[in-house]
Amino acid sequence: MKAVIVGGTTGMGRAIARRLAERGDSVFLLGRHETDLTRGAADLSARHRDGAVVGHAHLDLEQPEGFASALDAADAALGAFDAVIVTAAMFATQEALEEDVELTRRLVTVNYANTVVLCEHARKRLLARGGGRLVVFSSVAGDRGRKPVGIYGSTKAGLSVYLEALDHKYHAAGLSVLCVKPGFVKTGMTAGLRPPPFAGDPERVASDVVRAMDRRKPVLYTPRIWGLVMLVIRQLPRFVMRRIGF
Q: What pLDDT, in 10s, does the model give residues 152-198?
């Protein structure tokens, strides 16, 4: 596999990148911060089973005008990638978003509009070379309209629907689309928040994601217990959802 990872320097993205490098897959990192990219690429090069040099380039999800050149750099380094993994996103609490309309605009734009634009760039390239894998992190927060994550969850709901449509339309053409729906995972993004029951860790998520990629699954709940949790939540009547704080 020749994988481009957006957000591969921290949290779940870093854990996935390490697993791929350790088993010998080619990896290229895209992200915002040069220092993190340089450090992350060096770490992956040292871990790579075959000693391959891992490259990197700048990509900021708030700057869609740079998406094409970032993917060009990945193509040049990898010799035409066949997998794109998007773990990067913005997060803010519901309270913070309700207080700051500009923060809301940024988060909604990054998590939905610009992520879709990036996926469209990747989709076109992958289909032009016969297909490949597109793996994108959504969230269980998008399965229902929930009080604590209403705005953030709405962006993930839209993203999940988009990814499902891609799978329906392009599966036969060789595009394997995986929508990853993590529950609460202990990362820098969730630092300071009280972990709920069934909270996961990046290494466990990475293991689940790589396995799902290899099996070409269309949807993954991780940790797996969240698939059952959200099955129940999706069935709850609206009047119940109004009363509970989940």
A: 999 999 999 999 999 999 999 999 999 999 987 765 555 555 655 66
Structural contact between residues 6 and 83, judged by C-beta atoms closer than 8 angstroms: no
Q: Which two tokens stand for residue 54?
A: 């891992």
Type of residue found at 165? A
Cβ-proximal residues to 240 (8 Å cutoff; 6+ apart), any chain = none
Cβ(221)–Cβ(181) below 8 Å: yes
Tell me if the pTM is above 0.85.
yes
Amino acid identity of 51? Answer: G
| Count of domains observed in the chain | 1
Dist. CA 244–CA 222, nearest whole Å: 23
Q: Which residues pair with 222 in a beta bridge?
A: 182
Q: What is the CATH number of the domain that holds 51?
A: 3.40.50.720
Q: DSSP string of 172-215?
A: GGTEEEEEEEE-SB-SGGGTTSPP-TT-B-HHHHHHHHHHHHHT
Domain range enclosing 28: 2-243
Using one digit for the tens of pLDDT, what is the confidence trace for 14-56? 999 999 999 999 999 999 999 999 999 999 999 999 999 999 9
| Total residue count of the chain as it appears in this document | 246
